[in-house]
Amino acid sequence: MEHLVWELDPVLVSFMGLKIHWYGVLFAVAITAGFQVMKRIYIKEGLDLESLDNLLIYCVVGIIVGARLAHCIFYDPAYYFAHPLKILAIWEGGLASHGGGLGAILALYYYQRKVKLPFLFLLDRLAIATAIFGFFVRMANFANSEILGEPTTQPWGIIFARVDMLPRHPAQLYEAFAYLAIFIGLYAIYSLTQVKQKHGAIFGLFLVSVFSARIAIESIKVSQAAYAETILSAGQLLSLPFLAVGIVLLFLAYRNKRA
């Protein structure tokens, strides 16, 4: 059976010793796409556009710091506790999206205290931007031949030649297109319905849909943890609290009759 062979050079451009990687470019595109979505929402709702620059800075810092710390603590704690300075070596790889999400939430809380807007109001809108951000980050993982799926005989399996010659589930693409579908759905709900009047509803729907997809897709991923996992992978275990919070937010949003 013929399978697509993926062997993209991770370096997009190399000039006079300077290297620009596909991952970095797509990560920048992810940030830009999320920012543009938030900008569109701010314009539509007549919010202060100047304050949006601060939100971008806070969220980028929160995402990177949170994602790095979560990777070190939850995926390879023994190594990083033995070599604490390696926690700073972000260029060596290792960012956990669960920690990035939590970092973005904490950054938004700090931002919210300055702009005096309701926290759940902002979370609902940031959730939409985060979904498209996640799409491009997973495409960056695909370009980098990382976060691989288990071997498969399915015709859509992809051979990541930089890793081995086994056809594997393209888990990065599964997640990327799940996030893209979630983005389209959330933006449509925000634009066409009154759900946005129920503070916390869109964010709750985001958490339920994203982490339900994440739990399902984790079942066909190669383990990323440096220790033996049990019935659930580290990614699935970390997804459960987010899923639970999403369910609670939806329940509270629809139980409360007031907008």
Residues in helices, as a percent range: 55-70%
Distance between the first and last residues' Cα: 56 Å
Structural class: mainly alpha
Share in β-strands:
5-15%
By DSSP (H or I, 4+ residues per run), the number of helices equals 8
| DSSP strand tally | 5
How confident is the prediction overall: mean pLDDT? 90
- Can you tell me the residue ranges where pLDDT is under 50 for at least 5 consecutive residues? none
Q: Specify the biggest β-sheet.
A: 3 strands, mixed
In N-to-C order, the SSE pattern is EEEHHHHHEEHHH
Query: What oligomeric state do the depicted chains represent?
Result: single chain
Which sequence of strands runs across the widest sheet?
1-4-5
Radius of gyration: 19 Å
Which of globular, elongated, flat, extended, rod-shaped describes the shape?
A: globular
Description:
Helix content is 63%, strand content 7%. The protein has 259 residues and is mainly α. The radius of gyration is 19 Å and the shape is globular. The mean pLDDT is 90. The longest helix is centred in the N-terminal third of the chain and has 26 residues, at 50-75. A hairpin with a 6-residue loop joins strand 4 and strand 5. It has helices at 22-45, 50-75, 77-82, 97-115, 119-143, 171-192, 201-218, 234-255, and strands at 4-6, 11-15, 18-21, 158-160, 167-168. The chain has a 3-stranded mixed beta sheet, with no helix packed on it. Strands 2-3 form a two-stranded antiparallel ribbon. The chain is built from 8 helices and 5 strands, in the order E-E-E-H-H-H-H-H-E-E-H-H-H.
